[in-house]
Write a structure and sequence with these properties.
The complex is a heterodimer. By secondary structure, chain A is α+β, with helices and mostly antiparallel strands. Chain A is 54% helix and 19% strand. Chain A folds into three domains: 148 residues, no CATH class; 85 residues, Helix Hairpins; 134 residues, Histidine kinase-like ATPase, C-terminal domain (Heat Shock Protein 90). In chain B, the strands form four sheets. Chain B has a five-stranded parallel sheet with strand order 2-1-3-6-7, with helices on both faces. In chain B, strands 8-9-10-11 form a four-stranded antiparallel sheet, covered by helices on one side. In chain B, strands 12-14-13 form a three-stranded antiparallel sheet. The chains are: A alpha+beta, B alpha/beta. Chains A and B meet through helix 5, helix 6, helix 7 and helix 8 of A and helix 1, helix 5, helix 7 and helix 8 of B.
Chain lengths: 424, 227
């Protein structure tokens, strides 16, 4: 949910009870005011009638065109004691002229003449329909609510977007930010203190992250480089022993085994260096590379190397497919995919290579699906201990470098690895 | 032939020295930039092995210095940095070759020979052992002057052995050099055996005076044919 929508929603929800409370108060104060007025009029009218009645003057004709009505009824003393001397209330009265029942405000009072006789005077005047008023008030409040909301929406969106511009600039900058790559500088211009502070905080956080990132990269690179000299020493010394001393077959066999472990170590270190170089983006130069040619060359070599496993291979590629990438990376990418297909194959299995519409699919026989979320991780081994566990990590790293989608799936007893070149 | 080794790691320096001496070179060494600079100023060498990461300076500056002195010393850079940039810079500055650490002694000695051979002005760039001549430029092999047709990999294997006479080479090492990184994760080297067998057959059939001999169960060596 966007901050702006949230603010508007909160305001709308917050105003709702306020407006509801306001409409209730407004209604009651309105009713009170009207009743007050009506009661005053009724009071005056009652007084007039009482005065005339006491003075023996003629009383006004009942219902003299004013819709006001009155009645005077004699009452006894007991009634007087049990009822209040004056009372106002609402009542539905029947108006003969209109032949309908209308709401009326009624005043009932008791008076006494000189003879000590008690009379009850009831004066009524037609008044308003409460339900109508209520509906009316509700409509108007609702209309007011809508108008206020619309106005607020307009004003707030103008004010909000005008004032929040630095925030959106910063967010946009973060979207484009890639650690370790060349980034534009953190936006800093704003006259608002909070935004200046936010930009400042973002800049120092990013600077710190960049610093650590740089150190980390340097560390991996340096560690791998530092290993090269001792590895060279070990290798050359073993070689010297083998070439220059009299050794028994057993000793020589041990030496060769050491050398083979050493060359694994060397390859591992080389691959780590390559990985760190890819991730450092140290392969900027791109040329036109023929993927088909790389596939053909590699297939020839792997068919050769794995000839004794009688793996059947099928290659369906165009005679040429040109991609503009770094040639070392392209060779590494294709080579590792194909190598993977041969290394993790079964005796008498299949390797199918298809290149259609810039999508390279390498499929090989397998027994069970692999964990798709982990196969591209570094050092994720399955089965073969000889494998460095870095081949697919390299592939995935190169694909990430060029933004080429890389997918794995398992179908019909075959692992499928798919790389899309033309997405680049 | 005089060789100067500029390398800060004492153990590596010592073993390279020993290896090259046993091949009949006169070897001197320098452990840092200053010592190397002194030696280069005072003497001339046929070949300088130059580590470009020295504790007191960049070896590339030393290379510039050598070239500015207009000396004819050949330079092979040995570096832990296997990056294309360094390689290109080094070669641009006039180095004859670039060898990334870690390397085999056999590889280094082959590179030194190649550099010295080139400087000797041999245009044809041939390696000869017994009656077998191998032409690097045209990738042709001749036995007693008659061409022997070899497949690409067979040629590569023969080249590898011809560059390392007397060295014992095991299958894994051979596979790694000839097939490159492709053999990573291979646990069966029968394909090497098959190729070597074919190559040996072809050499024998052509009457070559050298052959590739099996050493115990795991390795090979280029040797004279027993008469």
């Amino acid at each position: 949910m966007k901050l702006f929508h949230r603010v508007i929603l909160m305001l709308a929800l917050g105003l709702l009870p306020v407006m509801a409370l306001w409409s209730v108060l407004f209604y009651y104060s309105m009713v009170n005011e009207i009743n007050d007025e009506a009661d005053d009029v009724l009071g005056d009218y009652a007084e007039l009638i009482m005065r005339r009645a006491l003075a023996g003057k003629p009383l006004p004709a009942p219902n003299s065109g004013s819709n006001n009505s009155y009645s005077i009824v004699p009452v006894d003393e007991e009634y007087v004691n049990n009822n209040p001397s004056i009372i106002f209330y609402d009542e539905m009265t029947y108006i003969p002229e209109k032949e309908e029942t209308e709401p009326a405000r009624v005043l009932k009072t008791i008076f006494c003449n000189a003879q000590g006789d008690y009379f009850e005077l009831q004066v009524a005047t037609p008044t308003f329909e409460r339900i109508d008023l209520l509906r009316n008030v509700a409509y108007h409040i609702l209309a007011l609510y809508v108008v206020i909301m619309l106005t607020m929406f307009l004003v707030i969106s103008l004010v909000y977007y005008f004032n929040m511009r630095p925030l959106y600039r910063l967010l946009e900058w973060f979207d484009g930010y890639r650690p370790g790559e060349k980034n534009s500088t953190v936006p800093s211009e704003s006259s608002v203190l909070e935004f200046r502070k936010l930009n400042e905080a973002a800049r120092s956080a990013v600077d710190r992250a960049e610093h650590y990132f740089e150190q980390q990269k340097l560390f991996i690179g340096n560690a791998s480089h530092e290993l090269q000299t001792p590895l060279a020493v070990l290798g050359t010394r073993l070689e010297w022993l083998v070439d220059n001393t009299e050794l028994t077959e057993q000793q020589l066999t041990e030496m060769m085994k050491m050398r083979s472990s050493l060359s694994r170590l060397v390859r591992l270190n080389k691959t780590l260096l390559l990985l760190s170089k890819i991730e450092n983006g140290q392969f900027p130069d791109a040329t036109d590379v023929d993927i088909s040619a790389i596939v053909r060359d590699n297939m020839e070599i792997y068919e050769d190397i794995y000839s004794e496993r009688s793996i059947e291979s099928k290659v369906d590629i165009p005679s040429q497919y040109i991609v503009h990438v770094n040639d070392v990376l392209a060779t590494t990418l294709v080579g590792n995919l194909l190598k993977n297909a041969f290394v993790h194959n079964v005796e008498g299995g299949h390797v199918n290579v298809i290149l259609v519409d810039g999508t390279l699919t390498v499929a090989n026989s397998g027994t069970e699906p692999l964990d798709a979320s982990r196969i591209f991780e570094r050092f994720y081994h399955k089965g073969s201990a000889e494998s460095t566990g870095l081949g697919l990590a390299l592939v995935s790293s190169i694909c990430r470098y060029y933004n080429m989608p890389l997918e794995y799936s398992f179908a019909d007893g075959m692992h499928h690895f798919t790389v899309c070149f033309n997405n680049k | 032939m005089k060789i100067l080794i500029v390398e800060d790691d004492a153990s590596l320096r010592e073993i390279i020295e020993r290896g090259l001496r046993s091949e009949g070179y006169v070897v001197e060494s320098a452990a840092n930039f200053a010592a190397a600079d002194d030696k280069i100023a005072g003497y001339s060498y046929d070949c300088i092995l130059l580590d470009i990461m020295l504790p007191d300076g960049n070896g590339l500056r030393l290379l510039e210095h050598i070239k500015s002195l207009k000396k004819s010393d050949h330079v092979i850079i040995i570096s832990a940095r296997d990056s294309l940039d360094d390689k290109v810079t080094g070669l641009d500055l006039g180095a004859d070759d670039y060898l990334a650490k870690p390397f085999y002694m056999a590889e280094l000695s082959a590179r030194i020979k190649s550099v010295l051979r080139r400087s000797a002005g041999s245009v044809d760039n041939k390696i000869v052992k017994g009656n077998v001549a191998l032409d690097l430029g045209s990738r042709r092999v001749e036995v007693d002057g008659k061409e022997v047709a070899l497949l690409k990999k067979e040629f590569d294997i023969l080249l590898y052995f011809m560059q390392r006479p007397g060295h014992i080479v095991d299958k894994a090492m051979l596979a790694e050099s000839v097939w490159g990184d492709h053999i990573d994760a291979v646990d069966n080297f029968d394909f090497v055996y098959a190729q070597v067998k074919n190559l040996r057959k072809r050499l024998d059939a052509a009457g070559a005076s050298v052959t590739i001999k099996a050493v115990y169960g795991f390795g090979y060596k280029l040797a004279e044919v027993d008469k």
